[in-house]
Amino acid sequence: MLDIARVREDFPILQQQVNGRRLVYLDNAATTQKPRQVIEALVRYYETSNANIHRGIHTLATRATEQYEAARARVARFIGAAGPEEVIFTRNATEAINLVARAWGDASVGEGDEIILTVMEHHSNIVPWQLLAARKGARLRYAGVTPGGQLDLDGLRQLIGPRTKLVAVTQMSNVLGTIIPVGDIAEMAHAAGALLLVDGAQGVPHLPVDVSRLGADFLAFSAHKMLGPTGVGVLWGRTELLETMPPFLGGGDMIAVVREEMSTWAELPHKFEAGTPNIADVVAFGAAVDYLEGVGMANVRQHEEELTALALDRLRRVPGLRVFGPVAAAERGGVVSFAMDAAHPHDVATIADGYGVAIRAGHHCAQLLMRALGVPATSRASFSIYNGEDDVEALIEALEGVNRVFGVGRERAAIR
Amino acid sequence: MWDVSEPLFDDLYRELILDHYRRPRNRGPLAGANLQAEGVNPVCGDEVHLDLQVEDGVIRDLGFWGQGCSISQASASMLTERLKGRPLDEAEAVTGKVRSMLVEGAPPAPELGDLAALEGVAKLPVRVKCALLAWNVLLEALRQATAAAQEERNG
Q: pTM of this prediction?
């Protein structure tokens, strides 16, 4: 059981009022807030250790390199990687997926080959594959979503064939919260000789993840959605795959020897980290991983599942409100999308903000899913470890306020 | 009943705006339209289509359709009501006054009439583009009208 009051004390940004009310931050699927420990690690790095890494001889360069590589080792341990060399730092999950699409895709996907996606994917797990398909004459195929908000697993199975080179799926829908059976999909993909890339941007921050058992060949995620700073993403890949892949970007730090015509590449993971990386934010990301490990990912998951169950129950009792996605909290992460009969999602978000409640409204970078759901946009509340039952109650109060403003249940004139 | 932030909501969601949202005026495509324009806010997906029937420099009739938030759709509905039967140059002038009110926070000009109800939107920068959408679509239609008139003169 999480002590929410104590957790909140670690998050300075939550100690404020918005529009005269306690800030209730429910936009965690977009980005989470940062605990004091992460902010302090960032400041401490700049105040005590800042230098460029990997080639310096002096004390600060050594210190900065040690801290940067220590963060890599912590991330590797956090996700159960075989070793730190399997963890490549990028700018974000999007760049991690683009790295695979370029470095692996350009070398491995040819004309007529197929890449299998789902309509639940975030645009970051669609557009890089569209670009690859256009470059190579490959074909994209999409698995659908069931009326209950689950991935159509049978449909996906039928799409996988002899031309399938890659299956790329989210671990958890950023709209519906649906947890995807990655292990089953890995079996299907591997049986067909295809690889599996998992977009863990939503999954890794909220579910215990062990890549040695996940079944994925690549896993992409972002630091800023898991209490870490913006500007850092991770690509995890199996060593034997990463070793066969050519570099993504060229430049300093990713080479072994440079000659006039050609160069040789540095060892993993440096082959994929050209130029000075985001050292300070990677170091602070290490502190975020420490924080999550301190809480325990099983506890994170249990807390968010309980909160989601409460939110689903309370939301369904709001008049004129429809919840999208799986009914059972056990089948979903802490992400709840909904629509209200009375008001468009943007109006819902504006009024909620008036109550100090931060939720998101829009297509959530998932236009294919919006089309499958038959809505232009949804409102979305998403949870993190500092959210409690009081936040759910504040959300419900705000949504009842939406109904009042839009005159649901009675004429608005009567209350003015 | 209102325990929080009542002024914000009252100012933004005025009864007139909600009324236009619930009961849009001049909604639907126009059979005799000779000018058409449409616009989308890519960030939020708000969508407005505008059909105009223009004769002798006067907007004889107009209709709109689309989807989106209350502000975007009410603004479009109010636009059609305000400009039906009005000359093109008045449409342009009113558009300028709406922009001043929404973008610069100018007090609503008297000729705006009911459109003054959109005044509260100016205080919420993220929603200004919702209210402006229909007016940007109108400007596109007016540009077409000008170009067509020019062509006629040249031809």
A: 0.93
